[in-house]
Amino acid sequence: MMKGRIIAVYTSKNKGTRKQPGDSGFLQANYGLLGDAHATPGIPRQVSLLSTSSLEKMRALGLGVGPGDFAENLTVEGLDLLSLPPGTRLQIGRGVILEITQIGKECHTGCAIFRQVGKCIMPREGVFARVISGGEVKRGDPVKVVEGGRSSS
């Protein structure tokens, strides 16, 4: 079974800005992370996730980046998020269920992250999900794949 863990939880009141760290957050079903500007009912990109392996790629390019620098809500260690197709369901902690809806996104030009960091990886490596079953998520929570996604072929 593919497993990882949450190493950081982040929210931001405004879109396109670096998010503020917290030890935990509450994911509301069909809404997103409470207190985050991207949380919206009914949209497919309610929560953003980024793998620590994606951050390591940026560090290898000489950028001093860390969790939260790319405005992700959840930073995940030990799980290759990019290998998971849309439709894959993830369980976080005891009962939070996310469904991956999209890998990558169109980035709006000149966002604060790009201006501050000089490069953004979310267009290629950001993973987006909708909240199927809500609850509290916190640093250290296990993340595991509970259902495979639909084939992209």
The CATH fourth-level homologous superfamily: PK beta-barrel domain-like
CATH architecture classification: Beta Barrel
Helical fraction equals: 10-25%
Low-confidence blocks of residues: none
Class by alpha and beta content: mainly beta
**Count of distinct strands:** 11
Distance N terminus to C terminus?
Answer: 23 Å
Q: What's the CATH class, please?
A: Mainly Beta
Q: Which percent range describes the beta-strand content?
A: 35-45%
In what order do the strands lie side by side in the largest sheet?
A: 1-6-5-9-8-7-11
Treating each run of at least 4 consecutive H or I residues as one helix, how many helices?
Answer: 3
Q: Report the major sheet.
A: 7 strands, mixed, barrel
Radius of gyration, rounded?
14 Å
Mean pLDDT: 85
As for the number of domains, it is: 1
Question: What are the secondary-structure elements, in order, as H or E?
Answer: EEEEEHEEEHHEEE
Net shape: globular
CATH topology: the name is M1 Pyruvate Kinase, Domain 3
Structure characterization notes:
The protein is mainly β. It has a single domain (3-147), classed as Beta Barrel (M1 Pyruvate Kinase, Domain 3), CATH 2.40.33.20. Helix content is 12%, strand content 37%. The protein has 3 helices and 11 strands. The chain has helices at 52-60, 112-117, 122-125; strands spanning 3-11, 20-22, 24-28, 32-33, 47-51, 74-77, 89-92, 96-103, 127-133, 135-138, 142-147. It has a 7-stranded mixed beta barrel. A 3-stranded antiparallel beta sheet has the order 4-3-10, with no helix packed on it. Helix 1 links the parallel strand 5 and strand 6. It is globular. It starts with a strand and ends in a 6-residue tail after the last strand. The mean pLDDT is 85.
